[in-house]
Task: inverse folding
């Protein structure tokens, strides 16, 4: 490929990236099964795809599966800090998949890369945060006629897309991969839980045991973070705006407080809500010295970083991925990973075994939207139930686990109303 066909940090990292991609694939039995099927069926022959995803080893194996299925695919990063540069190099050099992504790229470069992915003139897009869909609707409307449909990976992206659909602004169908049970029940909870705590520990090397750890929100991602922080010995406090989720957190054994009351006690605060300024100026004003603030939501707007910048009299970087803001009264607030996804900024993202199911959903949803998109309305659809169940069956088989099957008598009983007590 000519240099203009990709933009990565260093092609010399390709061999290192190849080993890591192959290592991840060993933990992705569902994707391996799909690769075997796709090689025979070629369900994406003739489709041009652009994917805006975290450029990780697991994403590389998704891209390989799509390529095997016949897709002509280009990738760009969905976050400036989420690219693994060796993975990007291997995708370009070994697998001949164009990539536009460099870890630590500035905002201008990030948007140049989004545009480069859309210059591919895709028929199907694959998003993690809805940036490609958003750009198509705002800046590149002339390409919308080429689009059959899209898939969306994350909660934040689906929030944006459902708002577009509610306003009548969405101009092609989107499959909400995040809503699949085999995605949010596992990836969001177990993947985000482990990888977020991993990122915080790598960035700080501070013992969690005995510390007060505040988790903003109690959706599936935050539940996973709270569970893993408690497992490391932290005293976990949950903050919520939804009374049902707050009640569930209480029943799960966590303390629940408003953020303003939790912040002064916190040694760590981590947000994963998908909303803006969850950690705000008035929270910084009451935090204790040395509090570490992190984010595991898709965008860095969850933490009001401009307010923290304005409040500080000095800023220093004592460790990679740690910025220490000194306030006028001498307190120091530590911002981790620039407020971006800490599990990808300071660590390696979710383990491959859980991304196996998420990316199987992406791959099969891409096939579904390619084959059925012209018959779908311009709205956000859930992943078809048969895909969800098929992935769960694949995963159980790979784990060597068998389950029961309903007898004809049981099926008849469940589908009838005649029998009573």
Result:
């Amino acid at each position: 490929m000519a240099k203009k066909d990709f933009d990565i940090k260093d092609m010399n990292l390709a061999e290192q990236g190849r080993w890591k991609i192959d290592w991840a694939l060993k933990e992705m039995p569902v994707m391996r099964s799909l690769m075997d099927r796709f090689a025979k069926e070629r369900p994406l022959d003739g489709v041009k795809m652009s994917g805006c995803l975290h450029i990780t080893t697991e994403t590389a194996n998704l891209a390989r599966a799509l390529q095997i299925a016949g897709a002509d695919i280009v990738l760009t990063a969905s976050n400036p800090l989420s690219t693994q540069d060796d993975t990007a190099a291997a995708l370009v050099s070994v697998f001949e998949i164009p990539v536009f992504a460099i870890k630590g790229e500035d905002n201008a470069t990030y948007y140049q890369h989004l545009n480069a992915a859309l210059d591919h003139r895709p028929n199907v897009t694959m998003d993690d945060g809805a940036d490609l869909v958003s750009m198509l609707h705002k800046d590149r409307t002339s390409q919308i006629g080429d689009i059959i449909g899209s898939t969306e990976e994350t909660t934040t992206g689906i929030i944006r897309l459902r708002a577009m659909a509610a306003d009548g602004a969405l101009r092609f169908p989107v499959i909400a991969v995040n809503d699949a049970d085999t995605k949010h029940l596992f990836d969001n909870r177990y993947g985000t839980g482990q990888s977020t705590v991993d990122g915080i520990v790598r960035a700080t090397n501070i013992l969690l045991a005995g510390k007060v750890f505040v988790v903003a929100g109690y959706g599936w991602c935050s539940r996973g973070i709270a569970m893993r922080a408690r497992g490391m010995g932290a005293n976990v406090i949950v903050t919520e705006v939804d009374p049902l989720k707050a009640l569930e957190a209480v029943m799960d054994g966590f303390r629940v407080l408003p953020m303003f009351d939790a912040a002064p006690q916190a040694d760590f605060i981590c947000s994963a809500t998908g909303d803006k300024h969850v950690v705000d100026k008035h929270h910084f004003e009451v935090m204790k010295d040395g509090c570490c603030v992190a984010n595991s939501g898709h965008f860095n707007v969850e933490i009001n970083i401009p307010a923290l910048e304005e409040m500080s009299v000095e800023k220093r970087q004592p460790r990679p991925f740690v910025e220490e803001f000194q306030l006028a009264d001498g307190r120091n607030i530590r911002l981790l990973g620039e407020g971006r996804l800490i599990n990808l900024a300071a660590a390696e993202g979710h383990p491959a075994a859980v991304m196996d199911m998420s990316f199987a959903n992406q791959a099969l949803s891409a096939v579904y939207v390619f084959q059925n998109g012209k018959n779908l309305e311009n709205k956000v659809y859930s992943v078809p139930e048969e895909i969800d169940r098929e992935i769960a069956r694949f995963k159980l088989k790979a784990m060597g686990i068998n389950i029961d099957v309903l007898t004809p008598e049981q099926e008849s009983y469940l589908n009838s109303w005649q029998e009573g007590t």
Q: What stands out?
A: The chain has two domains: 3-183+349-398, 190-345. Residues 3-183+349-398 form a domain with the Rossmann fold fold (CATH 3.40.50.1480). The radius of gyration is 22 Å.
